[in-house]
Amino acid sequence: YFGSGSATHGMEVIDGYLFAIGNNIVRAYDLQTAELAGTIAIPGSGFLNGMGSRSGELVISDFANGKLHRVDISNPANMTTEVLVNATGTTPNGVVIDEANNRALVVNWGSNAPILDVDLATGEFSIALNTGLGNLDGIDIDGEGQFYVSSWSPARITRYSNDFSTSETVVQGASSGLANPADISYAIETDSLGVANSGNGAPSFHFFGTANAVERLEAEEFVRWTAEGLSLSSPVAGTWHIQAFNYAGQLLDSRRIDLPNSPTIVPIERLNWDASLQQIWQITTPSGHRVSLRPDQRQR
User: Fold this and answer.
1) Is 107 helix (H, G, I), strand (E, B) or coil?
2) DSSP 8-state secondary structure symbol assigned to residue 133
3) 95: number of CA atoms within 13 Å, CB side?
4) Domain of 198: which CATH number?
């Protein structure tokens, strides 16, 4: 879709645009048309690498010069930039913005690599944690405010609590598809982590959701598994859209089902899908809410 676009390093999707770093140029592409909407060259940059985003703003790391840049993207055709941190004293790499706490978290290259906590209001920063890991590359945040960090040494994805007081290894080694794991991206809608592996050029996908839990979308609207099949309920009569994805993120099939505004059991046989396979189902309700489930872990 963006076949003619340039993206050598960090990418973010925000405000209806894809922002991509390509050889020290930040480019904005319209998600609807794939057209180039604007570019900006950051003065004095050495090696623009990681990128974090929130509405109207990017934070970009300069790996070579140890700087962090802030880019105003409120008008992608006329982006502006300023230095957020002039000298981190580190080799900054991946960036994520923790909007709830008005901060950026920045992972770094090197041994016993630190994670920096940067105040977005003042530009002041501190070390959130010296990780004991080597060559941190990517960082992202899930819907619970937990952070996921990729490291090269060892090849691992580590999950940290929001205050970095606890951690656990959640993906490790070549057997999990990791090979010099670089940028990562957490999809809150499907509770899945996508990893760009620079060692083999192949992305890997890792699922962290709970399949059998009931997700309450709003009063009287829910999606859940039962022994009889898929239980769907909405106060709105209309069309339910069900999509099946494999763990590589590829769309396998989709169905549209018209249902009344009352609880309904949809047997697996009605969908005519092989629900024994490892898949993620994304279900859109008539009111527009989305929930993701794994059919291979349904109740028997």
Assistant:
1) strand
2) -
3) 32
4) 2.120.10.30
Side-chain-side CA neighbours of 255 within 13 Å: the count stands at: 14
In this structure, are residues 259 and 237 in contact, taking their beta carbons and an 8 Å threshold?
yes
Q: Which residue has the tokens 């978290």?
A: 105
Indicate if the alpha-carbon torsion angle 129, 132, 138, 139 is positive or negative: negative
Q: How do residues 244-296 score in pLDDT, each as one tens digit?
A: 877 666 778 888 888 888 788 888 777 777 666 677 888 888 887 777 777 76
Residues 77 and 20 grouped into a single domain: yes
Q: Are residues 83 and 155 in the same domain?
A: yes
* Half-sphere exposure (Cβ direction) of 30: Cα atoms closer than 13 Å: 9
pTM for the predicted model, two decimal places: 0.72
Q: Is 255 helix (H, G, I), strand (E, B) or coil?
A: strand
Each residue's pLDDT tens digit, 185-198: 998 877 889 999 99
Peptide bond into 203 cis (omega under 30): no
Half-sphere exposure for 138 (CA within 13 Å, toward CB): 25
Estimate to the nearest angstrom the gap between the alpha carbon of 15 and the chain centroid: 15
CA distance 232 to 267: 11
Sheet bearing 230-233, strands edge to edge: 215-218, 221-225, 230-233, 264-266
Element (H, E) at 268: helix 268-271
Q: What is the 3-state secondary structure (H, E, C) of 204-252?
A: EEEECCCCCCCEEEECCEEEEECCCCEEEECCCCEEEEEEEECCCCCEE
Are 117 and 263 part of one and the same domain?
no
Residues 6+ apart with CB under 8 A from 258: 238, 239, 240
If you compute the radius of gyration of the chain from its CA atoms, what whole number of angstroms results?
Answer: 21
- Beta carbons of 53 and 70 less than 8 angstroms apart: no
Question: Where in the sequence is the domain holding 38, given as residue range(s)?
Answer: 11-207
Q: Is 175 helix (H, G, I), strand (E, B) or coil?
A: helix
